[in-house]
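Problem statement: downstream parser choked on a complex file, so we are re-checking the raw output for the P-hydroxybenzoic acid run. The parser issue turned out to be on our end (a line-ending mismatch), but while we're here, posting the original submission so the record is complete.
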Amino acid sequence: MRTQVAIIGSGPSGLLLGQLLTGAGIDNIILDRVGKDYILGRVRAGVLEEGTVGLIDQAGAGARLHAEGLPHTGFSLAFDGRDHRIDLRGLTGGKRVMVYGQTEVTRDLMERREASGARTIYEAANVTPHDFDTGSPFVTYEKDGGTHRIDCDFIAGCDGFHGPSRNAVPKSAIRVFEKIYPFGWLGILAEVAPVSDELIYANHPRGFALCSMRSATRSRYYIQCALDEKIEDWSDDRFWDELRRRLPAHHAEALITAPSFEKSIAPLRSFVAEPMRFGSMFLVGDAAHIVPPTGAKGLNLAASDVHYLFAGLREHYRDGSDAGIDAYSEKALARVWKAVRFSWWMTTMMHRFPDTGEFDQRIQEAELDYLTHSRAASTALAENYVGLPL
Ligand code: FAS
Ligand code: PHB
């Protein structure tokens, strides 16, 4: 088999890149080690920046997002028993975010891809990038009892944090930067009206909590938990009781509960791999970087990587210029590091760290006090949350 761009990974990065390439007449094949249902069973991000929405529209997959997504013009920070609303629209000259689950984004992109007739190979085992330091890269994979080869011009490593693309790069050619946080997020999904029509990020002495949603009838909640917590130790009742303790009284009283239908614990880390290009292979999305979900940046950073890479590949094939792909890594990393900084800052400000001393705790309280009483400080928060310019 031959294609112009071989894409490893059928998550948001791979599917968005694949659809943009297909729309530009650039042939591509997506390979994933699991099947569609497994991918759609993963519950992840919930907040889309306007730039991400624009790319999904450009990929022709935005109809349901605009019909069912929830535009949000602000959110609240809750601490000391009170709410402090961050007016995203007022502080950013009219910008907002769209609340629409990553699962639905993935579903819409998959449906669009199937309608376009572009090739996706699911349940492809042992996918391996080869010779990406040459002008004749190829990818191999195993399926139906045989080993197969796809020759291509470029490889897009959209295979997430644990995928093969970054791991195929010689250790001497890559630098990684990592910070592991001493806690995780215990999250649940329940078919019940959200406690508020906007998101609430809570900082409480017992730990962080987040009240989010997927629709007006489906809620998404998280509480900070220790890294050694076991999901089987958390009944729904225990979760709801802990969430109530971390929210201001008026929200705790208004909270409506229902049986959860998804419950999981995710560890938090900040991670960046440099560079994001190795000859004819490009790292995209979680394959290159991970952020703690506090700033709702993970999925949105994947989209901005796709924006830069798609522009470069289109320029290569349409204009015969490699300026865009040559600049990909530097351009993508400039935006990645600003989002990594923001996600680290918001995580540090909103969580309780086990080893925090009295001085650091006072600093966190001063940060929150300054943030909620200074237009300049809340503007900086707002412009990062809605997404810095692409
Ligand atoms: P993905 O990991 O989504 O997709 C990678 C794809 O590559 C997968 O389909 C995988 O099956 C495939 N793959 C892996 N190894 C392979 C191999 N060997 N061969 C072939 N295919 C392979 N972000 C937010 O903004 N907000 C959140 O609340 C949030 N919560 C998260 C919770 C969890 C538990 C996790 C893990 C991430 C969360 N994220 C969140 C971040 C998440 O949304 C990512 O940023 C987003 O999925 C990135 O998309 P991709 O880069 O496509 O990677
Ligand atoms: C979510 O709804 O899953 C969500 C929203 C905002 C975040 C993180 C997760 O910052």
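For whoever reads this later: The longest helix spans residues 323-350.
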